[in-house]
Design a protein that fits this description.
The chain is an alpha+beta fold and about 500 residues long. It has three domains: about 5-115, no CATH class; about 140-295, GAF domain (Beta-Lactamase, 2-Layer Sandwich); about 320-485, Hypothetical protein af1432. The chain is about 60% helix and about 10% strand. The protein contains 19 helices and six strands. It has helices at about 5-20, 25-50, 55-80, 85-140, 145-160, 185-190, 200-205, 215-220, 220-225, 275-315, 325-340, 345-355, 365-370, 375-380, 385-395, 405-410, 430-445, 455-465, 470-485, and strands spanning about 160-170, 175-180, 190-195, 210, 245-250, 255-265. Strands 3-2-1-6-5-4 form a six-stranded antiparallel beta sheet, sandwiched between helices. Strand 1 and strand 2 form a beta hairpin. Helix 1 (about 5-20) packs parallel to helix 3, helix 3 packs antiparallel against helix 4 (about 85-140) and helix 4 (about 85-140) runs antiparallel to helix 5 (about 145-160).
């Protein structure tokens, strides 16, 4: 509440009533003076107590003044039988004047309340959007997908035409542009910004957000530097719709990991403090999500190291299998891509390809490395390796979903495979892909007892077995990729005859 304003009105009001009292007879003047003094003191105390209150208290104050003046007017009329008509009108006019002030104040306060309500509704909506955004981006652990979502979300929330996200390189000396919208293609490729250079570099250096409403006035040195750069390629010059920029650091535990920058706000509007608050909140969620994605990538690297260690353990037990698992994986992944499987499936198939024969670790070396013909009983032992491999991997939590691929990669489309004789689409699709890749590599690889078959003959054999041993859809994809030169035989040293 504006205490000074109301006190001035209170003083003026009391002076006017004091002057009116001189028109009363001396018998009644002193009574009126008591009333005037009483209401002046009570008004002052009331205004003082309401000094720190908000809109609704201002409305109450205006009504309180109107009530007091109404009482004074009634008292004045009780003793004004001798008063000229003009003073009666003046008394009524004073009452109406205060009433008008109260009415205007109340209407103004209603407007204030309405504006506050709209602001509150807007804030609630923003909080709801930010909550949904936070849940969405924190559910994505793939960095590439995460950055795509960050780009889309920032454009929608800030209503901007340009967004750029930079992350530090390994040395933390330069910022690398990871994703952007609205920048020219010439600027996107390998764009690096040194710490302290330009708006983005300055934010990275200080770790503080930067709101620029007019860059020509606030940072003229950047404009001058741009103007005097005569060697700048015209195709790489950026022309902005507005001079307003907003740039915030991406931080994890007070450590800056990157910078998020926006400009060209819709309708050529200027960025304000509310935009800065929104982007700051959003950037904190983005930073956490990026950190989680990086940790996930680190964890995946650790997983791959574990998988490679398991594969190496198999090679140590049976040197004949060296290179086979890697080659099977190289054949299988293009097939899965051609069939339209997503990145997660491709990743799991890669793990399965590397580990599809891991069960051979459980096969005794006298059988596994036998150069002569295997007996029927020995071959039955060899046929156990898919089950042994599945049992080994089932105890590793992050490999649980590739267990069916390892278990069933020797099943046949017609149901005559092992270990369970599954048929058709009952066989997991990953196992069907590995089956084709595994067989093709086995046929084209050199063995102690024979040379590897030429690739064209092996291709024809895969085609011949489509619909009997192999899934026709997988074979169709394999043949297409082979004919396009995307599946190429690479010779490696291997002596194991049992694939």
């Amino acid at each position: 509440m504006n205490f000074t304003r109301y006190m001035l009105i209170n003083i003026l009001n009391s002076v006017i009533w004091f002057l009116f009292s001189f028109r009363l007879s001396s018998n009644y003047s002193w009574i009126f003076w008591i009333f005037t003094a009483f209401f002046f003191i009570t008004n002052t105390i009331y205004f003082w107590n309401k000094n720190d209150d908000e809109v609704f208290q201002r409305t109450d104050t205006s009504l309180y003044m109107t009530f007091n003046n109404g009482v004074m007017t009634l008292v004045f009329f009780m003793f004004m039988t001798e008063i000229e008509l003009i003073y009666k009108f003046l008394a009524i006019a004073l009452f109406l004047f205060i009433a008008l002030i109260a009415t205007n104040s109340r209407n103004g306060d209603r407007k204030d309340v309405f504006e506050l309500k709209n602001l509150l509704d807007s804030k609630i909506q923003e909080l709801g959007e930010l909550h949904n955004i936070s849940s969405a981006i924190n559910s994505i652990l793939d960095l590439e997908r995460l950055l795509d979502m960050v780009l889309s979300v920032t454009v929608d929330v800030l209503k901007v035409g340009r967004v750029s996200l930079f992350l530090f390189d390994e040395d933390k000396k330069n910022l690398i542009l990871k994703i952007s919208k609205g920048l020219k293609k010439e600027l996107i490729n390998n764009l690096k910004i040194k710490i302290g250079e330009g708006i983005i570099g300055k934010v990275a250096e200080t770790g503080k957000p930067l709101l620029i409403k007019n860059i020509e006035k606030e940072m003229p040195e950047l404009i001058e530097k741009s103007k005097h750069n005569e060697n700048q390629d015209e195709n790489k010059k950026e022309h902005y719709k507005t001079n307003s920029f907003l740039c915030v650091p991406l931080k994890i535990k007070n450590e800056t990991i990157g910078v998020l920058s926006v400009n060209d706000k819709n309708n050529n509007e200027i960025f304000n403090e509310n935009d800065l608050e929104l982007l700051t909140i959003l950037s904190s969620q983005i930073a956490v999500a990026i950190e989680n994605a990086n940790l996930y990538d680190t964890m995946k690297d650790s997983y791959k190291s574990t998988i490679k260690a398991l594969s190496n353990a198999l090679d140590a037990k049976d040197s004949y299998t060296g290179g086979h698992s890697s080659q099977v994986t190289k054949y299988a992944l293009p097939i899965a891509l051609d069939l339209g499987f997503d990145k997660h499936f491709i990743e799991r198939l890669e793990y399965a390809g590397m580990l599809h024969d891991i069960g051979k670790i459980g096969i005794i070396e006298t059988i596994l490395n036998k150069n002569g013909r295997l007996t029927e009983d020995e071959f039955d032992v060899i046929k156990k390796h898919p089950v042994i491999g599945a049992d080994i991997l089932s105890s590793v939590s992050f490999l649980e979903d590739i267990v069916p691929i390892v278990r069933y990669h020797h099943e046949r489309w017609d149901g005559n495979g092992y270990p369970e004789g599954l048929k058709g689409e009952d066989i997991p699709v990953g196992a069907r892909i590995i089956a084709v890749a595994d067989t093709f590599d086995a046929m084209t690889s050199d063995r102690p007892y024979r040379k590897g078959l030429p690739a064209e003959i092996a291709r024809a054999e895969i085609e011949r077995c489509s619909g009997s041993q192999f899934d026709p859809a997988v074979v169709k994809s394999f043949l297409k990729l082979f004919d396009e030169g995307k599946i190429v035989v690479e010779k490696y040293e291997s002596k194991n005859r049992w694939f």
